[in-house]
Amino acid sequence: MLRFRSFNFSWNEASMRSVFLIFLFAIPLGAQSTGTPATVEIDGAFLAHVKSHPSLAILDAVRAEADEAMKVGPYSVMDNDETPPSGDKHDYMSLAPYWWPNPATPNGLPYIRKDGETNPERYKIRDDSEFNKVQSAVHALGLGYYFTGKEEYAARAVLLLETWFLDPATRMNPNLNYAQAVLGVNTGRGTGLIDVRGIPRLLDGIALIAGSPAVNGQVQEGLRKWFTEYLNWLETSKNGQDESDAKNNHGSWYDQQITGVALFLGDKDFARRVGETAETKRIVLQIKPDGSEPLELARTKSFSYSVFNLTALEWLAVEERSAGVDLWSYRAENGASISTALDYLLPYAKGEKRWTYQALNGVEGDSLTELLLLAAMNYHNPEYLRDAEKLEKKPDAETQLLRAEAEAALATK
Hints:
2 domains; two-stranded antiparallel sheet; 16 helices
């Protein structure tokens, strides 16, 4: 028996999944759908509907963001001056954000934790910031290509992907062994996986450019191989297992990330098991009957972290719908659910109640906009849509798409 901390697989099942993934290597990314993109988060069917019934406001926002993304990168893990402990600059590395030099020791080691206070030393190693620029740009370029058909958008996205993931001279190795290191304590931690929580958005960008000639067979096979190896690392490495075991937002983001990768690779059975486990491993454990999230309330940025964890759970619920798991409707025996967590936060976001927990960065009501739009469409609740419209400030293209999808869902209730 091959045992992982979250799931148990027999060798036969693991072998069958490997054969299945090898078979998928031969399937062009675009062949999974002729008109509907095989996205893992944003709804591909709704994107196809918007494409056939275009909104000028959405198209203008998509074009503007894609045009900006044309100026991004390319970036590589090789850009750093520092070298990871492995001696291989192809390994991703970053420093833990809330750890600072120890004033009680001559050399400042070991570093000590100051929750919520980011040490600017973190920014000297650029892998975290550059990866996030890549994933945001690929997502924007993917939407741009899908809605306009402009090949330059797809070509730029492929350049970013090849540089970060595929080119032997610049590629990142498929691991996060040295992410969020604490100087004087370790060379990397499971918590570092949260650096790349945007991977499902990047995978959506890949799905959106699948119909372009720029996404040739070599690119398709290379990306599938990279993410297959990365999925194996997420399952089997100590850092991956530690993050899977995390009880707070880190565990939620782990589930969201690993589910997105599994769906990209076509493994809905694996994604389904994550979702079924999340009912008790995440929702029951993290959310109280009144909707509060105690593990996040203990943080110095308690409102932000409560929203942050709920963001992971809602996007996980979005992903799990395609795997046949309905986390939106799941309600624990004590009444805890995704909706109770949202309802707990909403009056504070609207200014109807005063937040009494520590909040170094205050209460940013507009941070609930995305969550309210997702909830409006999945609970068919027009009040959530109205609250989102009141709270949102500068909606980007994705927010406009989510709002349009929520409006469509409510119109067909």
